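Work package 3, deliverable 3.1, input record:
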Amino acid sequence: AQSVTQLGSHVSVSEGALVLLRCNYSSSVPPYLFWYVQYPNQGLQLLLKYTTGATLVKGINGFEAEFKKSETSFHLTKPSAHMSDAAEYFCAVSDRNTGFQKLVFGTGTRLLVSP
Amino acid sequence: NAGVMQNPRHLVRRRGQEARLRCSPMKGHSHVYWYRQLPEEGLKFMVYLQKENIIDESGMPKERFSAEFPKEGPSILRIQQVVRGDSAAYFCASSPLPSGQETQYFGPGTRLLVL
């Protein structure tokens, strides 16, 4: 069965510092991978996704993630944090076993950005 | 193009009452997914519907929960005889084609509180 592990329920960085949010997945077949961001009391917004092709994926708001099959990881990074990046971030996976129909989410990482 | 709409945004029910949550997908989208987010947890898949059909309800509790997506009108998630454990945020997502490489677009959610 698919599962997603996000290490660290909370990550704190200073404004301008590197952001690194970790995501590891388990899937018996090649997955599709997603990062979503959720601002307070709002729905989820897609940051980026990996389906096929280039393993380094660039998303909105300066975020990017790299699919590393050997490490079963899809970590999210941003070179320089901004105050507006403070939110909850969810990694998700889907795969052929479920017809790619359902997303399996990690438990989320809350990013805190201090001035 | 309006996004996914959900109403109500907040719903308070007493134990034993019924809760009806509505989701209007994005224009042109005929695939709807419902997810539940319990406090401090990630989203969990509940059900996937196409117009007039339930495709996958593997995440739905066996009792009290039902979903529909009629030919006309919004998708409805119905919870009968609510209990305190049903308190959660319920998110709807839609996609134009079966989700896979297609992105699921999320609504703002309905936050259900059972007293």
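The longest strand of chain B covers residues 43-50.
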